[in-house]
Design brief:
CATH architecture of the largest domain: 3-Layer(aba) Sandwich
Largest sheet: 6 strands, antiparallel
CATH topology of the largest domain: Rossmann fold
Number of domains: 4
Shape: rod-shaped
Number of helices: 20
Number of strands: 23
CATH class of the largest domain: Alpha Beta
Strand order of the largest sheet: 7-6-11-10-9-8
Distance between the termini: 115 Å
Helix content: 40-55%
């Protein structure tokens, strides 16, 4: 920054003649003094001699010190300061020159001053004592030379300009330094805040973080989540490498570059306990204190992968269950035909012994096949359930004697019952099957003997438990456990044990449906199974069943009755399977019923319109093709005839259908497959409920052949 030349000079002297002399010297027309001064400046500063230019001074006069002070003060206000003042030492009667100089410098320290004196009033020492050593002060002895005055005027005004320029430059530099300092302080403060935010985020983050040196991979810092995941303390890690503490984080370090960070790469992490955890590793190069470092993020996904595996397993089991249910449903229709015809023929006379034996073998084989379909339906949670209040401890005590016979003498059976166990709402037979299948599975895992422990306890499950197992529902549960000391299972076997027909036994040694049935029954009871196993250390199956507040009701044994030979009733059969429909028609014809039939709901409505007042009972399948299923059909017909008797039949469980109608096995629901005696019995009970108490027990297949009788004349009136 350039400061313009300031030629303003203040003359301070009590003698007006002196003022006139200075005016003549400084405002004269001769430039000789200036030329000589320029020549000396050229030699002194080694600068080329420039053409002389005329310099004009601006002079102001003050005759006393106070007047001089007023002029200096006024000039500063007007921003037109004086560069130089010639001050006489003696100025009676007011301030002398030294006091005047003191006063002037108080308001304008940059003012250049020439002290003019003809007397020895003050020595140099006295002046410096009063004024201090100051390079703005020059002494001029009277009488003075004109050239000397001009030289001083030019030199000191120039000095004032240079000094002001330097001062402004210093002020500019000071301002620049101050601004830069404030900027640095602000940056440092922001950096500290940023570091503080990073440190807090680093420490409090639930994601494991670590900082390592680039060259040696030494740990510089780790957060709490990292310590928790690896099991190491902070003091064990800081300053050490993963190799030093046997901590392995397996990620592809070779793929890390300055501009290529690693993002979400699956890695294995070995913890202090030796456990292998699966994690997503991300690595970024950062600079700390001028040195390259690595910021490592290791997101533990072991639990997530475990839950995903459980979800996939559940979805797979659901898909298998749907397939098994479809197969079982179609197979039940076939078994209904086989069992129905076999049982029907066994009621007829005239068969030879070989024929009767063959029919009995067919009936027994179809019954075994029906057991298999029931297991498939149990796995798929579509079997018929008869839930009631069950005390699990009591059920286990009732089964203990039979279980001891089943497992043999070389295996010890123990029981550990929980106290004050609440009841469960469950199918009694289904729970028996669960206990027996788990016990037999444990027996088969101990070919050389061992022990089986059946235990019970009560557990309260919360939302936190659901985080570890998606099958968990909060609530109170009875836990049935079966623990063995057998061979245990590996992870691959453990993943497949509930699949239908999966078995590790030799050929013809098992169907592979035991644990699948346990799984299906448990799921149908809104429970789940937890399995703990290890090779060589045995297995534990824990079945979780929700408790109930229901009160137990007295059991009623619904004995099936044999139907009379004369039906004298009209029955509408609605069944989409022609073979099943034909069998039912033949059985009902044989027992003297009048039969109307239809292959689906729409056809049944057409038959109903023509025989509405004749039909006494509707026997309908629940699941049929078309827009009208069995339940919708019955609701339409009951809307027109509320007194109409209805019996439903299906290969699925009654629990799968609408809750608008209460389906009860043996009363208004006939599960497939069924014997002809069971069919006629449920028809008789529906049509003649008043005779129920006087009815005889239903004859079994084995004895029905002896109770043969002639076939009644058919009264069927078939309509499709």
């Amino acid at each position: 920054m350039n400061v313009p030349l300031n030629n303003r000079i203040l003359l301070v002297d009590d003698n007006p003649a002196i003022h006139e002399d200075f005016r003549k010297i400084l405002l004269g027309t001769s430039n000789k003094a200036r030329t000589e001064l320029d020549a000396m400046e050229s030699v002194l500063f080694d600068k080329p001699l420039m053409p002389a230019t005329k310099v004009t001074f601006e002079l102001a006069s003050a005759y006393q010190g106070k007047e001089a002070l007023e002029k200096i003060t006024e000039s500063l206000k007007e921003e037109k300061p004086f560069a130089l003042a010639f001050v006489d030492v003696r100025m009676p009667p007011g301030w002398d020159g030294i006091e005047t100089i003191e006063r002037l410098w108080q308001v304008d320290p940059a003012l250049q001053i020439v002290v003019c004196t003809a007397y020895s009033d003050y020595s140099w020492e006295k002046m410096t004592q009063r004024l201090g050593v100051n390079d703005n002060l020059v002494i001029l002895k009277k009488p003075f030379d004109n050239i000397e005055v001009l030289q001083l005027a030019h030199a000191l005004t120039r000095k004032w300009q240079v000094t002001e320029q330097a001062q402004m430059r210093l002020e500019s530099l000071d301002k620049m330094v101050a601004d830069r300092t404030r900027a640095l302080e602000s940056s440092n403060a922001e950096l500290r805040r940023s570091e503080e935010r990073f440190a807090k985020a680093f420490r409090a983050s639930p994601i494991p973080f670590a900082i390592q040196t680039l060259r040696e991979n030494r740990f510089v810092d780790v957060n709490d989540a990292f310590r928790h995941m690896t099991g190491y303390g902070r003091a064990e890690l800081i300053g050490r490498t993963p190799l030093d503490v046997h901590l392995c984080i397996d990620y592809p370090a070779s793929s890390l570059g300055e501009d290529r960070p690693i993002r979400h790469v699956e890695a294995q992490v070995s913890t202090k306990s030796g456990e292998l955890r699966t994690a997503l590793a991300s690595v970024e190069r950062i600079v700390l204190d001028g040195e390259p470092h690595l910021l490592l993020m290791v997101l533990d996904i072991s639990e997530r992968l475990h839950l995903e595996s459980q979800l996939r397993q559940a979805q797979k089991m659901e898909a298998i269950g749907q397939l098994a249910a479809g197969v079982a449903h179609d197979f039940n229709n076939l078994l209904t035909i086989i069992q129905g015809h076999a049982s029907l023929q066994l009621t007829l006379s005239g068969h030879g012994e070989d024929t009767v034996e063959s029919l009995q073998q067919i009936a027994m084989a179809s019954e075994r096949a029906a057991d298999l379909t029931r297991q498939l339906l149990a796995f798929s949670r579509r079997q018929v359930m008869r839930p009631r209040v069950v005390q699990v401890n009591t059920l286990i005590r009732e089964l203990t004697a039979m279980l001891r016979r089943l497992i043999g003498e070389q295996i010890e059976l123990r029981t550990e019952f929980g106290e004050e166990l609440p009841p469960v709402w469950a199918d009694h037979t289904g729970l028996e099957q669960v206990i027996m299948n788990l016990t037999l599975n444990a027996r088969d895992a101990m070919p050389r003997g061992g022990s089986i422990t059946i235990g019970t306890q009560v557990m309260e499950m919360t939302e936190e438990d659901r985080e570890h197992n998606p099958e968990v529902a909060p609530g109170r549960y009875v836990v049935l456990s079966v623990t063995d000391t057998g061979t245990g299972m590996d992870a691959n076997t453990r993943a497949r044990i509930f699949e239908p027909f999966f078995t590790t036994k030799e050929t013809n040694k098992g169907t592979g449906m035991g644990l699948a049935t346990v799984y299906g029954i448990t799921k149908q009871h809104e429970g789940w199974i937890d399995v703990s196993t290890e090779l060589g250390k045995g297995s534990q199956f824990r079945v979780f069943l929700p408790t109930t507040d229901r009160v137990a009701e007295p059991l009623i044994d619904p004995a099936h009755q044999a139907a009379p030979t004369d039906g004298a009733a009209t029955i509408l059969i609605v069944e989409d399977d022609e073979a099943v429909r034909s069998l039912v028609r033949e059985i009902l014809d044989h027992h003297g019923y009048r039969v109307l039939e239809a292959e689906h709901g729409e056809a049944a409505l057409a038959v109903w319109r023509n025989h509405r007042d004749e039909i006494d009972l509707l026997l309908t399948d629940m699941v049929m093709p078309g827009s009208v299923n069995g339940l919708e059909l019955s609701q339409r017909l009951l809307g027109e005839r509320p007194d109409l008797k209805v019996i439903y039949t299906s290969g699925y469980s009654a629990e799968l259908f609408s809750s608008d109608v209460k389906l009860e096995d043996g009363v208004n629901y006939l599960p497939k497959p069924y014997l002809s005696a069971k069919l006629t019995s449920i028809l008789r009970r529906a049509l003649h409920p008043e005779e129920e108490t006087d009815a005889a027990p239903v004859p079994t297949v084995a004895t029905s052949a002896a109770a043969s009788k002639p076939v009644a004349k058919s009264k069927s009136a078939r309509a499709k």
